[in-house]
Amino acid sequence: MSCCGAFIMPIDLRAPVAPPPARPFELTGRMVLFGMIAFFLVVAGVNAIMMTVAIRTMSGVDTRSAYEASQRYNDEIARMQAQAERGWHAEASVQRNGADADIVLSLADKGGRPVRGLRVAASLQHPATRAEDRTAALIETAPGRYEASLADLHGGGWTLAFQAHRGADLLFVSRSRILLKD
């Protein structure tokens, strides 16, 4: 006891100090707001990246100018009618030769006679990107039989297109979907 009647408790200065009790986690409105803003920023950022990549790889445009294509529409119909009136029979094939592909087009008139002396071009058009497109000038190897080879062509779906000219006149056009196997 002390002289004044107060009780003094001994203090051990070497004892570890207990940390103050931890406050329990509290979810505040500000935290929810920032969480939602962060979530939508991430979603918008990913969408912007995916859109940019998609547009750069496939723009979705098949013709450069729809107006110019519409101006040639009647001419195209007349050309297709003239092609139908000629009554040519066409047989096309694409054969794999390792990584290469051999393209053959045989043309015959209404009477079954070979159509000779044409300048024929073939193109294999990739459905996803024009960067993969391949073109070849076909050579007449036999009467009415035109051939070409395309090197290093991967498998998959393609559009095979032919155009046959005599002089400046476009006489024959054909487009078909094909599947090349690896």
Describe the structure using short key phrases.
single chain; 182 residues; alpha+beta; 3 helices; 7 strands; elongated
User: Structural class, please?
Assistant: alpha+beta
What average pLDDT do the residues reach?
A: 88
Order of H and E elements: HHHEEEEEEE
Strands, count: 7
**Radius of gyration from the alpha-carbon trace, in angstroms:** 38 Å
**Tally of helical segments:** 3
List low-confidence stretches. Answer: none
Biggest sheet, in brief? 7 strands, antiparallel
Percent of residues in beta strands: 25-35%
Please state the overall shape, judged from the principal axes of the Cα atoms: elongated
| Amino-to-carboxy terminus distance | 101 Å
Q: Main sheet: which strands, in order across?
A: 1-2-5-4-3-6-7
Q: Roughly how much helix do the residues carry, as a percent range?
A: 25-40%
Secondary-structure map:
Layout: H1 29-57, H2 66-71, H3 73-86, E1 89-97, E2 100-108, E3 119-125, E4 134-142, E5 145-150, E6 156-166, E7 169-180
Question: Could you describe the 3D structure shown?
Answer:
The structure is a single chain. This protein is elongated. The chain is an alpha+beta fold and 182 residues long. The protein has a seven-stranded antiparallel β-sheet. It has helices at residues 29-57, 66-71, 73-86; strands at 89-97, 100-108, 119-125, 134-142, 145-150, 156-166, 169-180. The chain starts with 28 loop residues before the first helix and ends with a strand. It has three helices and seven strands. Strand 6 and strand 7 (169-180) form a beta hairpin.
